[in-house]
Amino acid sequence: MFDFEFYAPTKVFFGKGKQKDIGKIISNYGYKKIMLQYGKGSIKQNGLYDEIITSLAQNNIEVVEMGGVEPNPKIQFVREAVKLAKSENVQLVLAVGGGSVIDTAKYTALGAVSDCDVWDFVVGKQKPKSALPVGCVLTIAAAGSEMSWSAVVSDLSVNMKRGLASDLIRPLFAVCNPELTYTVSPYQTACGISDILAHTIERYFTPCDDVDITDGIAESILRSVISAANVVMKEPDNYEARANIMWASSLSHNNLTGCGRINALPVHQLEHALSGEFDSVAHGAGLAMLFPAWAKYVYTYNIARFARFARNVWGVNNADDKAAAEEGIKAMSEFFKSIGMPSTLQDFGISNDSIERLVELCTFGNTRTINSVISLGETEIREIFKLCTL
Amino acid sequence: MFDFEFYAPTKVFFGKGKQKDIGKIISNYGYKKIMLQYGKGSIKQNGLYDEIITSLAQNNIEVVEMGGVEPNPKIQFVREAVKLAKSENVQLVLAVGGGSVIDTAKYTALGAVSDCDVWDFVVGKQKPKSALPVGCVLTIAAAGSEMSWSAVVSDLSVNMKRGLASDLIRPLFAVCNPELTYTVSPYQTACGISDILAHTIERYFTPCDDVDITDGIAESILRSVISAANVVMKEPDNYEARANIMWASSLSHNNLTGCGRINALPVHQLEHALSGEFDSVAHGAGLAMLFPAWAKYVYTYNIARFARFARNVWGVNNADDKAAAEEGIKAMSEFFKSIGMPSTLQDFGISNDSIERLVELCTFGNTRTINSVISLGETEIREIFKLCTL
How do residues A88-117 score in pLDDT, each as one tens digit? Predict the structure, then answer.
């Protein structure tokens, strides 16, 4: 077991109708003026916006609004939000939405108390020193940003999607009501499930020895998500299934499933290149395509681990390690297909000719390798993307 | 899944040699003057005290010492510590030890910023409003106090051992180095293991429906502790086993294994009466005796759950639920015996005549029942203690 730090200070309010307490929750922290961020307006159609505004008003909390966050959130939007947060002197940024909205809120929170451009933090030119508190009302179980220390943002002008990690942007609180996810489309639900699984599978395969307690927790969370996924794709308003998936979202990315292991999200790096280049690619869908391809390419380098994964997560019974590993990868691949995820670049409408550009983006122009089960350089990443064409 | 709040803000610094960073850690938080609490001096013999003092001095942190905390910590000691903490204006209470020392630090932290007697918080006469921050360097994996919101304390003058729960006393940070537990005696190691298992088993059996994700995590943590226990009783300096047990200690009592379930520690109530009355009873040993007795008494009221417990935790293979449940209880009972835990009152040197007194203490003089798999009143508690005589 490697040394680790575990820090998950976000207070989670989990359960039915909890969004109606938002005003009281913020008021209890002592904040009086906040910025409210949300996406393209679905929360206005389904009544959530009204519930939030009502609760905030009842608790005399002044609201500065900044709706319209896009999927794969954009730095340009963040810059506008930062400007407004500064001029209005807001005390907290409240995200009502999924990972894109929460990530936007995190960058806004950093920018609002900084003098430099927020992109400077993303590319490492500046180190963040403080941030406004961020709160969230989660509307889709996926990114795990509600309890994580990371956030991603894109700059379309340079086709870059990059991430940042800092304890400063761990949300102060997260309001998680599984009922709010009943109306998430089957496709988006499946993307979310893929993202959740990915966060734990990534950590599970970082190159280090088994860590009994962490690996067991990871496997149990994966089994729980897979089982709930099979229910929720048929019954979108099954509370128990939605609740298991939503709580798994938070636990899969607050690093519980990485404690004592090397901490990295290698396949995410490949996906960020993909959805950075092709804005229409949903992050979870990109991951669902990439994981089986990545696994097929790397599993021979740690057959025992892939066999364990197959047996403990996918219920594979084969006593032969190599055969078990292969069955496990097949089961994972079939699972992603069964919930409607794409399995090839063609499924996304992306030409195979794009592979070289993707390799270039993944490797930052052949200047880095990505440490996965093995080190992934140009050659390896090219082969993995080629496996996404079969 | 029931609604829940999850809040585990303690920052955990886990790994080899981490205690040597204690001065830097405290200094990073900005504290300059602290109270250092510890037990009966074993830390002076094994060098830990010197490491702590050196690191604090290197970081110019002024130290007010209060050693001598006893197992089953006493309110009289806390009162002395509070007096000193107030007169010295310390900013943080640092516990170097196990649950008893950390619990003492928690009460000291509450008392240091309050005008009333600390016992008023324990018996509910006053509600705590603030507390000094508490930090800890863990030297025994057991109570889980390093990440919990609870603390127990005894007043021998009235033979009472009682607990208190408040977010105010969740430690700010916990330094967890498994190496520090190499020298814990086999008996104390086993007591700690029993306490860890108890914290998760209690939550696992509270009377509510299955919560897939939480139950899976609980089962995997239990399996991990049992497996590590079998190693560590033979190899006390096995790092991996000590590390799995130590991390399980924190995860078993920060309520991760209770999310979405009814939250209660019913068998702990029986044990608190026992070690409140008999100060020589180690908390974990008391629990190890009580759990099989309690299980034998209540399992018929939820056979399916006990069968699941038997299969998923103890590896029982019996397809018949009742038989599986019984085999699981037997396996648990044998496990506790195998690590050297007492299984009867006689093993503690306690006469069967004490049962009536214990029943009286558990029920606060027949004024309460304890909600377990079933509601435990005078009659039920008496029967459970009688099962501790067989």
Answer: 999 999 999 999 999 999 999 999 999 999
Residue pair B297/B381 in contact by the 8 Å Cβ criterion: no
Q: Are B292 and B327 in contact (CB under 8 A)?
A: no
What's the average model confidence in pLDDT over B107-132?
96
Tell whether B41 lies on the interface with A, counting CB pairs under 8 A. no
Interchain CB contact of A301 with B (< 8 Å): no
Q: Which residue of B has its CA nearest to A222?
A: B213
* Alpha carbon distance A107, A110 (integer Å): 5
pLDDT of residue A25: 98
CA quadruple A348, A351, A355, A361: dihedral, nearest 10: -60
Whether the CB-CB separation of B354 and B309 falls below 8 Å is answered with no
- Cβ separation B5–A12 shorter than 8 A: yes
pLDDT at B385: 97
Grouping H, G, I as helix, E, B as strand and the rest as coil, residue B152 is: strand
Angle at A288 between CA A283 and CA A293, to 5 degrees: 125
Task: Return the structure tokens found at B349.
Answer: 């040197």
Global confidence as pTM: 0.96
Positive or negative, the CA dihedral B370, B373, B375, B379 is negative
Point out the residue among A212, A248, A259 whose CB comes nearest to the CB of B224.
A212
The shortest C-alpha distance from A119 to chain B (Å) reads 27
Q: Mutate which of A12, A16, A217 to test chain B, going by most B C-beta atoms within 10 A?
A: A217
Is A304 an interface residue toward B (CB < 8 Å)?
Answer: no
- The token duo for A84 is 């407004």
Q: Please give the average per-residue pLDDT across B158-167, as a whole number.
A: 87
* Distance in Å, alpha carbon of B327 to nearest chain A alpha carbon: 23
Domains of chain B by start residue, with CATH: 11-180 (3.40.50.1970), 186-387 (1.20.1090.10)
pLDDT at A163: 87
Instruction: Identify all chain B residues contacting A228, using CB atoms and an 8 Å cutoff.
Output: 212-213
Which residues numbered 198-227 in A keep a CB inside 8 Å of some CB on B? 211-214, 216-217, 219-221, 223-225, 227
How many CB atoms are located within 10 Å of the residue B305 CB?
20
Q: Is the pLDDT of residue B11 over 90?
A: yes
Radius of gyration of chain A (CA): 20
Those residues whose C-beta lies under 8 Å from the C-beta of residue B355, and which sit 6 or more positions away, are B345, B382, B385, B386, B389
Beta bridge partners of A155: A160
CA distance A340 to chain B (A): 23
Out of B5, B220, B256, the one facing A216 most closely (by C-beta) is: B220
Distance CA B333, CA A141 (A): 41
B319-335 burial, b at 16+ Cβ within 10 Å, e below that, comes to: eebeebbbbbbbbbbeb
**Structure tokens given for A225:** 């998500």
Cα–Cα distance, B316 to A222 (Å, whole number):
23
Q: Which residue has the tokens 């019974």?
A: A317
User: How many angstroms separate the Cα of A341 from the Cα of each of A152, A188, A226?
Assistant: 22, 10, 14
User: A205 exposed, middle or buried (CB, 10 Å; 0-12, 13-18, 19+)?
Assistant: buried
Grouping H, G, I as helix, E, B as strand and the rest as coil, residue A345 is coil
Residue B260 at interface with chain A, using a CB cutoff of 8 Å = yes
Question: Between A18, A247, A259, which is nearest B247 by CB?
Answer: A259
- Rounded Cα–Cα distance for residues A259 and A254 (Å): 10
CB contact under 8 A, B216 and A223: yes
Percent of chain B with pLDDT over 90: 90
Alpha helices in chain A (DSSP H): 22-29, 42-45, 48-58, 75-88, 99-111, 119-122, 186-204, 212-232, 239-251, 266-277, 283-298, 303-314, 321-338, 355-362, 378-387
A77 CB-near residues (< 8 Å, 6+ apart): A68, A69, A70, A104
